[in-house]
Amino acid sequence: MSVTDTQHERRAQIRKLSSLLVNQIAAGEVIERPASVLKELVENSIDAGATRISVELEQGGVELIRISDDGHGIVPDQMTLALTPHATSKIEHADDLDRIGTMGFRGEALASITSVARVTIRSRAIGEPEGRIIEAEGDTVGEPRPVGCPVGTTIEVRNLFFNTPARRKFLRTNTTEQTRCLEWLRDLAMANPSIAVRCVGDGKVKLDLPLGQSPRDRALSIVGKELSDQLLEVSVDRYDDSRGILVWGLVGLPSIARANSKAQHVFLNGRTIRDKTVQHAIREAYRGLIEPGRHPTAVLMIEMSPTAVDVNVHPAKLEVRFRDQSMVHRAIYHGVRDALQRADVTPTLAQRLPGFTGVGEAVMPTIDPVQRAREIEEHTNELVEYIKSVPERSDDDSSVRDTIRQVLERSSPTIAAQPVASFAPGDGAGEGQIGELPRVRRVDQVLQVHSSYLISQDERGVLIIDQHALHERMMFNKLIARVTGNGSLEQQALLMPIVLDVPAGVVDVFGELEPLLERIGIQATPMGPQSLGVHAVPSFLLSRNVEPEPFMKELFERIEHEGFVPESEEALHEVLDMMACKAAIKAGDVLSDDELTAIMRLRDETERSGSCPHGRPTTVRLSIEELEKLFDRR
């Protein structure tokens, strides 16, 4: 028999695993890092009715995690049982799995933690004259001993993964592990605002939240009180006779959307969850208000009957399964959308500057404010006096431009880097091109500047509007309404088909694309391995003087390169946005008086007029406060 045969025979033998190995395998599912230990133990404290929870961490929780609470404690004769696998006080019968109302219920946590760490538990139950202490390490569990301690439980977990070095070496730095612990603790504290939570890491206080906070105050204490005026309240009440859903929360203005989803906190019956249904509903509510790749800030507290949700689908209880996903999606979507529709989501000028951090104002370079104020005042006065003298001078255009630039260079190199339009007093015929006076026209409280931007005002400041982006939003909403109402856009048949060379992949999936094309008013047929014949185009495009052939070429190129899912709403929105962009007025288009009046009137009637379909702003506000700061009034 060869060595290989011997190894195969040995591997084929079936053995009963030791209890330690079983628990270590379970720990691999439940205990990934120190944050997993903290989560499980704090959830136990919450289930025990604690009003105060204290956490101590050493070296990111790798060397020590100590959780103390004032809950109801563990009775003496159950101390050993608490460390036994699948022992729990939270469920008793199979039917209990359909109405789980506690944070923990599997009975795996303590046994799993004990199998990979050194654990000490001190606990005194309500009504008991003294407490008990028990120590465990690996598969060795000591006997409980009497000990003096207050009512409640303290659990110490030391030397995590001391007996599984392969697991320990995959841990990150102590700083990273501590950060993960604090993230979980903040989430648990946010979901339970009535509980006081304190955390000390390596001797320094990292978190200290008082007893009995309101949900709003607790959320602001964690996400940042400075965001208070940029968070909108969400409230949904569709709960009736133990069915339906209640939602309360705070969602951020589009201007504080982040590059990742870490600012989203979703809780279900006090439990932190990561659910695709909820995340999709939030994302859809913000569609067209934030740019692709950005994630809104959100804190949502969801309450449902335990019978309406299954929380027993993930070892760490992060994922859940709703009995009625569509009902949950609708409630979250409409709740968030309604909050956004009630709010003014126009960003301020400071929020659009590159250094904006999401709170307060843009982060500007550090300068001496007193010296800078003196320089600005000096150069501004110089510039104003010079401009006043221009009508009386005979200097040519270049001389004026050079003098203005010299003043600006001393005042602000950044501004001076921009092209300076020539000054021609009394000449209002320019079209906003470089070297000419920017076109400035006033019609019913609106100015058109550079034939590209509209300037108006509201009660909060000055509005600067991108005419192309605003008209694109209007066109997009118009197209969406037509498609939703009639099912497809009107077609205009062509006398001669347009034959297009397209990527081979487009022809291969044409059968899947055809319903989408027909829905937007395009009739086409394959005419070869890499060609399509277009027989009809949307009447809308022709009415807006959009050339069909270039539009079709770009459309099919985007379908090939961006990997559209033809039957998805995202694909429909993408194509309609492309149509709206092509049909909208452009930067540089001179608008008549009637057009200026109409576009401002329609702006007030257009839903989400503050942003284009891709989430970029159509309007920026220079607030009264910002104006006052610019002129040193604040």
Explain how this protein is built.
This protein is 37% helix and 22% strand. The chain has 634 residues and is α+β, with helices and mostly antiparallel strands. It is elongated, with a radius of gyration of 33 Å. The longest helix is centred in the middle third of the chain and has 21 residues, at 369-389. Mean pLDDT is 81; it is low at 360-370 and 410-439. Helix 3 (34-47) runs parallel beside helix 6 (174-191). It has 4 domains: 19-209, Heat Shock Protein 90; 215-345, 2-Layer Sandwich (Ribosomal Protein S5, domain 2), CATH 3.30.230; 368-432; 439-634, formyl-coa transferase, domain 3 (2-Layer Sandwich). Strands 1, 2, 3, 4, 5, 6, 7, 8 and 9 form a 9-stranded mixed sheet that branches. A 5-stranded mixed sheet has the order 10-11-14-12-13, sandwiched between helices. It has a 5-stranded antiparallel sheet with strand order 17-18-19-20-24. It contains 21 helices and 24 strands.
